[in-house]
Amino acid sequence: MTDSFLANVAEIDWLQYPGHFGGALSKPLVTPQTCRSRRIDHRISCYAPMAFVEPHVHEVQEQVYHVLEGEGLLTLDGQRHLLRRHDYVFVPPGVRHGFTNNGTVPLVFLVITTPVTDEEPL
Questions:
Q1: How many CB atoms lie within 10 A of CB 48?
Q2: Cα-Cα-Cα-Cα dihedral of 5, 7, 9, 11, to 10°?
Q3: Of the four listed, 13, 37, 51, 75, which is most buried by Cβ atoms within 10 Å?
């Protein structure tokens, strides 16, 4: 059983994960490493102008992106979509996607992913 967990965003260090470039930073808020979450990976991300995550595909993971500030271009299977404050998107497995800050201010958004790894459960 996982214990309850309470923290503040400021307590977590910014990281630049593989495949993220130009100041595409994230804070792992709820993950197996931070609180022993078994099914959820919840991050807050802040992308500087021109920062991006390269297009990629998840085999089994589902993701939600929820924009808090700024605007960016989300690519879903080759189609570009402008996302702004309060926009959110669900990305199912098998959809090629990438996210770029084409705006002039930082792009801040939440990322919720389940399961925590991109592998079929045993």
A1: 15
A2: -120
A3: 51
> How many other CB atoms are found less than 10 A from the CB of residue 21?
14
Q: The dihedral of CA 67, 104, 75, 117: what is its sign?
A: negative
pTM above 0.90, yes or no: yes
Instruction: Find the angle CA(39)-CA(43)-CA(44) to the nearest 5 degrees.
Output: 160
In the chain, the amino acid numbered 47 is Y
Return the number of other C-beta atoms located less than 10 Å from residue 10's C-beta: 7
Q: What pLDDT digit, counting tens, does each position of 46-55 carry?
A: 999 999 999 9
C-alpha to C-alpha distances, 101 to 9, 22, 64, nearest whole angstrom: 21, 10, 17
Instruction: Give start and end residues of each alpha helix (H) in 1-122.
Output: 32-35
Distance in angstroms between the alpha carbons of the first and the last residue of the chain? 18
